[in-house]
Amino acid sequence: MNIIESKFKTVLTYGTFDLLHYGHLEILRKASLLGDKLIVGVSTDKFNTIKGKTCVLPYQKRKDLLKSIEYVDKVIPEDNWDQKVTDIQDNNIDIFIMGDDWEGKFDELKKFCQVIYLPRTKGISSTKLKSILDD
Ligand code: C2G
Question: pLDDT tens, 42-59?
Fold first, then answer.
């Protein structure tokens, strides 16, 4: 009987994940199905300033929410644009996932792992939720 060796696969993705919503859950769920372990890099408040994003929820709350998701195995801080290669190497990442609003932007990572852009979930965004909160 030949046992097919199926390598343990680790998946990595990044985001701000402010006001966690079903669009975030959808990409995280799909990412988790592509491997055995899902690591999520959450943008720190300082990095969000660099990204030009203002968050409703501070880093710790965004991190706690992500850690409560059953298919998220590990949450790491995202402090800058340049840490991805180190994160990929340090965590033995096999697959890097981002929503297709980032299509092509991280192709340089193909040297280190598989890069897959998944379709964004339509009709929901943290920005839309913020505008409702501001009403
Ligand atoms: N997303 C999605 N569908 C939505 C909204 C977001 O699939 N309706 C995905 C985005 O494509 C992204 C992830 O959810 O892959 C996180 O989205 P954001 O929190 O907006 O993250 P972003 O500000 O794009 O930060 O270094 C990468 C950056 O940290 C990404």
Answer: 999 999 999 999 999 999
Q: Which atom of ligand 1 is nearest to the CA of 43?
A: 29
> Which tokens is 67 given?
């850690």
CA-closest residue to ligand 1 atom 16: 15
**Buried b / exposed e across 21-47, counting CB within 10 Å, b at 16+?**
eebbbbbbebbbeebebbbbbbbbeeb
CA distance 44 to 15: 10
- Distance of alpha carbon 121 from the chain centroid: 14
* Domains contained in the chain, CATH given: 8-134 (3.40.50.620)
In this predicted structure, the answer to whether residue 2 has a pLDDT above a threshold of 80 is no
Among the options 37, 46, 51, 63, which is catalytic? 51
